[in-house]
Specification:
Length: 426
RNA sequence: GGAGAGGUGGCAGAGUGGUCGAAUGCGCUCGACUUGAAAUCGAGUGUACCGAAAGGUACCGUGGGUUCGAAUCCCACCCUCUCCGCCA
């Protein structure tokens, strides 16, 4: 959520930054509501103050012997009732305004960072660097991963559609073991990098989704339980960040690092026909997620190390990838700055997103009300939150099935995974 | 799912209509005493909003209601705990 005070103070600057994302943002209606709300608040608090004085006066007079039924107290009661009537008129309007303002604020995306490259669409994203070109292979003799997987019998889509629907997979035998090995390897590596492992709830309530920014705008992207205020989490970022919702942390408790394996669930509404085959776009997929809650002064540096922690997995697996920085037009709703890691998929001869590392600055923290207190100072400040995949497991498996295909049709197991899988080829 | 108990400040725990943002204790911060520490003593110690400031307002699980006045009374909801049942 954006800071209404900032919008009030610099409406033009905020509007310009928002428009870098593309789309129209007119902040004037919001500012008018805000002004009206504050006027009402001033009025209301004056009336309230008088009402409090009367309330106290009545009590005092009765205590010091006035007749509770006498004219003096009757007059105060009348004035009190009068104020109550006036307040009853102001109050609903002010509450409605507050709600309206809040609802508008909740729909506004984060401001892009000053360092985020400007651009309208993903074509203007900026490549930062590439890694592993030496291992990069072309499509010659490469089966797409879904064909390879079916040939090896390590997953099955057709039967999964029977169990659930399309865009679900069942991993079988070595496929299930490989997925499990990848999860263990990723977690072990991130734990070694300083992240505290968490195994959080994967059903989350509406407040949690609102705090991290999936609600109210992206409700159609998540699966919702019919009878409870619970949703299947679209990413572990939601439960992990919300662990600290409505908390005031001591500054020495920061930074907080968590990693977590969870399944993730996405409805993929509006992506019909895209990536219909294989492990790339499923309603349910596994991911190891990284989150950080940090002091604002360190968040830029923390973002860089977060990205390196994600990159380290790809390097250890010797999968060729590139890092791109999203331009302002391609930035996610809550992100101020974002790097995507894209792994090489030889069958398609493209790089595909396998990790997204975002710095949300204080955007989520304001929604989630996650603050910290600097020792010895008065007041509190919003922390910064960061998140990144480390990594998307299904897409990692896809990348391995393609990049590690040998000429004889076997798939070699990356060296670092061999201790986990206790085998060298699939 | 059934029965019961309960939700108050960092924690514990008073408070059942009036001056209560809230006693007391612990914790924490600063100070005094001490060679240092402990103990002791003194002062301070919630959050947010409005306001240039003085100051004002709100918050005792959440939302309504009664009243001149609600932590306290009424209604609804949420959550936690205990026991029973069921269950991985």
């Amino acid at each position: 959520m954006l800071d209404i005070k900032q919008i009030r103070a610099n409406p033009v600057a905020v509007q310009e930054k928002l428009s870098l994302r593309g789309g129209d943002y007119d902040l004037q209606p919001l500012l008018r509501l805000d002004q009206r709300q504050r006027d009402l608040e001033t009025r209301r608090s004056q009336l309230q103050s008088r009402s409090n004085t009367i309330g106290k006066a009545v009590g005092q007079k009765i205590k010091s012997g006035s007749d509770p039924q006498g004219p003096e107290i009757a007059a105060l009661r009348t004035e009190g009732n009068d104020l109550k009537t006036q307040l009853a008129e102001l109050d609903p309007e002010e509450k409605a305004l507050k709600l309206e303002i809040q609802n508008i604020l909740l729909t506004l995306p984060n401001l892009p960072s000053d360092t985020t490259p400007q651009g309208k669409t993903e074509t203007e994203n900026v490549e930062i660097h590439r890694w592993g070109d030496a291992h990069k292979r072309g499509p010659e003799g490469i089966l797409p991963h879904w064909e390879m997987g079916e040939k090896l019998g390590i997953f099955n889509f057709e039967r999964s559609a029977k169990v659930a629907q399309s865009r679900f997979v069942t991993l079988l035998g070595a496929g299930a073991a490989l997925e499990r090995a990848l999860i263990s390897f990723m977690l072990d590596q991130q734990i070694a990098a300083g992240y505290i492992e968490a195994l959080p709830p994967i059903l989350v309530n509406s407040d949690s989704l609102t705090a991290t920014g999936q609600l109210p705008k992206f409700a159609e992207e998540s699966f919702k339980c019919a009878d409870d205020d619970l949703w299947l989490t679209p990413t572990a970022e939601v439960p992990l960040v919300n662990l600290y919702r409505d908390e005031i942390l001591e500054s020495d408790a920061l930074p907080i690092y968590h990693c977590a394996y969870t399944p993730c669930f996405r409805r993929e509404a509006g992506s019909y026909g895209r990536d219909t085959r294989g492990l790339i776009r499923l309603h349910q997929f596994n991911k190891v997620e990284l989150i950080k809650i940090v002091n604002p002064e360190t968040s830029e540096a923390e973002h860089e190390t977060l990205r390196q922690n994600a990159e380290a997995i790809l390097q250890a697996l010797e999968l060729p990838y590139r890092v791109i920085e999203l331009c302002t037009g391609d930035l996610g709703f809550g992100a101020a700055k974002c790097y995507d890691l894209e792994v090489w998929l030889p069958s398609a001869e493209t790089y595909r997103e396998i990790s997204s590392c975002s710095n949300c600055y204080d955007f989520q923290a304001r929604r989630a009300n996650i603050r910290y207190r600097e020792a010895g100072t008065k007041g509190t400040q919003f922390a910064h939150t960061l998140n990144g995949s480390g990594l998307a497991v299904g897409r990692t498996m896809a990348a391995i099935l393609e990049n590690y295909q040998a000429a004889n049709g076997a798939v070699k197991i990356p060296t670092v995974l061999q201790p986990y899988l206790r085998r060298e080829v699939l």
